[in-house]
């Protein structure tokens, strides 16, 4: 991508797509679209539509995408690169396609076997390598980075290479429970805030989940708790259980993700005797997709 040209970078997740237009070395515009799990049509059609008005105002030299753009539901399959993998090995496995005359580059995901258990990620690796671009200290020594989300990742890094990781589908579980069961509670009536429910969930987060989940419903029926309290309780219970399993007592963690979500994870880690520094996930993915952009290029329209 020429620094004086126009290019597009994008993070395509299962629930949403974020595209950024780069001109003269700076992000000048943004588009949001549907994720691969909620698209109404083929990924190529979605991308072409979102690029349409940008293309009408000038040439786009290329598009670089990460995440689910490389899945079977995306633009072009991008195989998983096995761990351990440093940034060079990861970028060497990228795949390329042309869409209506525009060169498309899709970055691969990563794979790993943890004690024989298969693990995969798509998109989180871009945030990790981007975080190391913005803060080179993270590329030294051994570290653990946590990336909360639909499928949360707990990633081991050694001298800039991702050596392994584990996945906790906490976000997906929370969405399924609060949407498709009686536990979450949609009724606004009752007492208690999300924050109060979260605290109660954290307090029970070391208990087996099967026995702890039902308080979300029983507390509404017996104690008059609100639906917001119940959702906070489930969030605290699930996030707390994840933090207890992977981060209890750790003082050197790095959290990468949405600020509202990393705040909840930092609270859960503190409850279990840990602590972490936080990095904005969007800034990290931008740095991973376009390392030449300045580390401060996180503010955009």
UniProtKB/TrEMBL annotation:
Pfam families in alphabetical order: DGOK (PF05035)
Regions annotated as coiled coil: none
Highest taxon, organism lineage: Bacteria
InterPro entries, per the entry: DGOK, DGOK_C, DGOK_N
Official protein name in the record: 2-dehydro-3-deoxygalactonokinase
Lineage: Bacteria, Pseudomonadati, Pseudomonadota, Alphaproteobacteria, Sphingomonadales
């Amino acid at each position: 991508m020429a620094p004086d040209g126009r290019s597009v970078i994008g993070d395509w997740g299962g629930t949403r797509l974020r595209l950024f237009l780069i001109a003269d070395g700076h992000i000048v515009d943004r588009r949001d679209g549907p994720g691969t799990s909620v698209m109404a049509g083929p990924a190529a059609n979605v991308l072409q539509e979102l690029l349409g008005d940008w293309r009408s105002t000038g040439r786009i030299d290329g598009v670089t995408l990460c995440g689910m753009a490389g899945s079977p539901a995306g633009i072009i399959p991008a195989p998983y690169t096995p761990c351990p993998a440093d940034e060079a090995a990861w970028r060497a496995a990228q795949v390329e396609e042309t869409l209506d005359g525009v060169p498309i580059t899709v970055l691969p995901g990563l794979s790993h076997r943890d004690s024989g258990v298969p693990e995969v990620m798509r998109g989180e690796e871009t945030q990790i390598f981007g975080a190391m671009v913005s803060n080179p200290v993270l590329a030294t020594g051994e570290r653990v980075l946590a990336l909360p989300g639909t499928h949360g990742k707990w990633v081991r890094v050694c001298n800039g290479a991702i050596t392994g990781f584990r996945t906790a589908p906490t976000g997906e579980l929370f969405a399924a429970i609060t949407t498709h069961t009686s536990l979450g509670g949609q009724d606004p009536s009752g007492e208690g805030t999300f924050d109060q429910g979260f605290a109660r969930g954290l307090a029970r987060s070391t208990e087996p989940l099967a026995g702890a989940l039902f308080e979300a419903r029983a507390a509404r029926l017996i104690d008059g708790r609100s639906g917001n309290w119940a959702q906070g309780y489930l969030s605290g219970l699930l996030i707390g259980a994840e933090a207890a399993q992977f981060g209890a007592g750790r003082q050197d963690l790095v959290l990468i993700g949405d600020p509202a979500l990393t705040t909840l994870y930092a609270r859960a880690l503190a409850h279990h005797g840990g602590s972490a520094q936080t990095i904005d996930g969007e800034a990290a993915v931008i740095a991973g997709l376009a390392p030449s952009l300045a580390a401060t290029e996180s503010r955009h329209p």
